[in-house]
Amino acid sequence: MMKKRLAYLLLFTVAAICRAQPGGFTSTSSLAQDTVAKELGWIQTNQNQCGGYYLEPSFSYPVSDTQNSTLAITGNQGVFSLRGVSTLEGKVSITRQNQQITSHKGVLYRDPATGKLSSLDLIGDVHLREPNTLVVAHKGNYNFQTGHKSLYDLLYRTELNGREVVGPKPVPNTASQHDRKITGMTAWGSADEFSQEQPRVYELSSASFSTCSPESPAWRVKASHIVLNKETGRGYATNARILVKGIPVFYMPYINFPLDKRRKSGFLWPTVGISNSFGPYALVPFYWNMAPNYDMTFTLGALTKRGAQLTDNFRYLTPLNEGNLRVSVLPGDAAFTYQQTAYKDKYGNNTDPAVQAELARLLNSSNTRRSLVWRDSAQFNPNWSSHVDFNYAGDDYYTQDFGSDLNEITQNQLLQEGDVNYKSPNWFFTGRVQTYQTMHPLQIGQTPIQNQYRRFPQLILNGDYPEQIYGTEYFINNEATHFSIRNTPGTTANQPVGNRLNSQPGISLPLLWPYFYVTPRAQVALTHYDLYQTTPTNTPDIHRRVLPIFDVLMGSSLVRDTSIFSHTFEQTLEPQVYYTYIPYRNQSSIPIFDTTVNTLTYDQIFNYNRFSGIDRIGDANQVGVGVSSRLLDAESGLEKIRIGAGEIMYFSRRKVTLCNDTSCPDNPKNPANHWRLSPLSGILDYHVNAAWSFSTNVIWNPITKQLDNSSTGLHYQPEDRKIINLGYNFVRNGDPLSGITAINNSQNNLKNTDLSFTWPFLNDFSALGRWMQAWNTNHLQNLLYGIQYDTCCWAARFVGGRAFIGPTPNNKNSLQYSNQFYLQFSLKGLGDIGTGQPDSLLSSINGYKTHFGQDF
Fold first, then answer.
1. What is the pLDDT of residues 475-525, one digit of tens each?
2. Which residues on adjacent β-strands are paired with residue 568?
3. What does the alpha-carbon distance between residue 312 and residue 325 come to, in Å, rounded to a whole number?
4. Do 615 and 632 form a contact (C-beta atoms < 8 A)?
5. How far is residue 491's CA from residue 793's CA, in Å, rounded to a whole number?
6. Between 29 and 166, where is the model more confident?
7. Which listed residue, of 238, 447, 569, 696, carries a Cα 20 to 30 Å from 138's Cα?
8. How far apart are CA 437 and CA 372, in angstroms?
9. Number of helices and strands in the chain (H, E)
């Protein structure tokens, strides 16, 4: 007996009150597909990818949301008895809140003990309707005491709410009183029995399931038992067979699948495939939804060449921080053990110290392969925050054999960093620990990979006080860092290590007028080095540097309204002049901890130091001149065109260089340090319209009258699924793999073209690809190719890739490539299966967003 108030309203009238539903039909197992589509309310159209939509008729007897416990029973005519059995005929209807059941005939039964109505048998053309859900059956039963509903020999459909992130999307009560189109992903099928005890939970026996068009289903699942639980957002099937065009292709005793995007524990679809590194392999993930803000995915892998691998990915989200921890272990790697033996036999007698050191590291490595990644971001309060990015591999060959999510700053350098930050209106503090795990795979005939300096720790304190007396701005930048380094395997000479202290106070006076501004600035760099391990390099133990720095930035910003092709724009003209003076100080005895030469760009023209880092502060007596102009849409404010050009005029030669010898290009013998003019830097960004954009950066040398480098890109994207990218890059003397040491040799100039695209064809097909070629050495740099077939209810794609790694260790004329292949299938509404996710490959196509397996 229901606990809430239950009012039975029996209305017998000759007038047709209920809306007539489609007529009765024979057994659902023998219905033609067009009949099934008609019974489910399918309307054919050529205006969407699915070829149609479901039409949801209005509810005949809408009930107010406030009448949650009211049950209304109506019929055209009948025989009512206060005892025993009552009969209703002609459009029998039972309506309660957002559910309605109709049939041709109904038989009411009373509880013998209480005399109250207990159940109703529904006979002929039974329709159970909820918003976005329809069940059509031959007969059924409604138990008023338990609320249990059973229907037999039926068809059903129900929207899966695939676009919802959390929970089902309710249909407003007013919307249910009008005909509606259902265009979202909808599951349908047939069953011998339908059972419902709780709202939005459907149990089906001897049932089928598909999200394809009911007129021509490409696939369906047949199972002994299917449960669709919209309250939890999950469904499952037992004794499930997957049929493609009626042919069984796959069997699973149990399958759990999502009805929306909410998370739930369970096995995910496995990944199977074959690769040169693994051989045939299978990966089986299990997802554990530990809590709303914690989850974990265990993946057990069977790699035939290597063994069994276990990977655990733990994600967390708290009010203070978020992050993930990923651990991978593979005990007793058979292929790695074989590699150790083979390399020992092949290189054991090599006399090169670097080769012997790298071989010793290989032989001393455990054959238990392992890796760890921990990334964390925390915000403790508005002022304090922290960040961790820690990456670890168990041996020098891990990234070669497995790839991974390890953060390689450069090849074979794994970042291990943690910092704490404080930010206030005037002060900024960072405390950092930063190291690198340098991997040293054995590479015959190549320069050994060098270990990097570690910051252990680095303390930064910067202060800024703008708008002080007379409009001045005071600032100071402070840094204290301890540098250490381990010797590169095979070398014995120790590198300098120690402490570096730098304090750089300054003052500026911004002077602003409506169309003109001048900002003079003066600062002084006070740097102190306290070093040890200096004997091998003849570096002083103590070094102090005091450098005054003076610069002044002048410029103007002029704006006018203009009209181009009857469209209004704002055009700006922004000339800038930047003077810098820094006296010369001999810095050749200062070791290079973290400093390089900045690449000249338009923005770099207006930077006082041509070096990054503070181990070198270049002497300067120069003026940088630049002018830029922008075209802004007057209505949207979006930038239509940006064009700019500039260069530096030097009044003295540059004496401070990165290197004291020819070990790097920036050395005292480089003629570029004697030039009076810098290369001319130009930039152009042009957004032709919403689909077309063009950009180019050019650096032209007026002394040699040659291009130093240039990059050009053309991007066309009229739709998400239609993309074409064209690119060209040129860097003079910029190919580190050419093997040519002579300067101005044309084969040493990096010349790359880059073409990528994704484009639909033949309705449901789309092709994608990328071709990157290094023309100076005439070798393939990167190749990506793929084809995708994506329909309303299923998708398949094949993606392959080939990436240049470098020359073969024993033969520089032979090149090494990494090959990857992916094959995926997606049954929409059920899940994906394949050989892995190619998303990392596809992200190299500018503008690409994956739509694979997603609802249209």
1. 999 999 999 999 999 888 889 999 999 999 999 999 999 889 999 999 999
2. 563
3. 8
4. no
5. 61
6. 29
7. 238
8. 12
9. 5, 49
